[in-house]
Amino acid sequence: MIVYTVRRGDTLWDICQRFGGTFEATVRLNDLAHPDHIYPGLELTVETPDTAGKTFCVVQSGETLWDIAQRHRVSMEALVAHNGLRHPDEIYPGRLILIAEAPQPDKPDMSHEAGKEQQGDDETQGAETRGEPKEEAEAEAE
Predict the structure, then answer these.
(1) Residues 11, 77: one domain?
(2) Residues forming beta bridges with residue 96, ordered by sequence position
(3) CATH number at residue 64
């Protein structure tokens, strides 16, 4: 998603065309009763296919990275990292700034569990070949 602050002379149609969003989706997403009555300073959210799951904003004239961080409640360090900036002053009006990516569903990392099971099996197999009972070998492994 892109968060865009309407400028003087903008139309909703032009904004949608600029960012590849659809007019209907933008009207619905922003709950616009009168899409032809937008005004400078209004913040619009525009969802586009290539930005699904991500939140962007468009840098406005006179805006600093600190301003953007405060408005979106994120750290400047996070903005610098998300956008590959070498310096916070590397922004300019019209630039898209990635605010956040949608969190990925938590997938448990089972790789260490598989290693544990394999390790335990190896230890008990070794014990059995040495003539030790399997239960004693498992107790020693813990």
Answers:
(1) yes
(2) 58
(3) 3.10.350.10
3-state secondary structure of 55: strand
Q: Which domain holds residue 115?
A: 111-141
- Span 43-102, pLDDT tens digits: 898 877 776 677 888 888 899 999 999 989 999 999 998 888 988 888 888 888 888 775
| Tally of domains within the chain | 2
Q: Is the pLDDT of residue 24 over 60?
A: yes
Q: Locate 67 and state its tokens.
A: 């301003």
Structure tokens at 134: 């399997």
Residue type present at position 18? R
| Helix, strand or coil, per DSSP, at residue 91 | coil
CA distances from 5 to 27, 57, 124 (A): 15, 8, 65
Tally of residues, the chain: 142
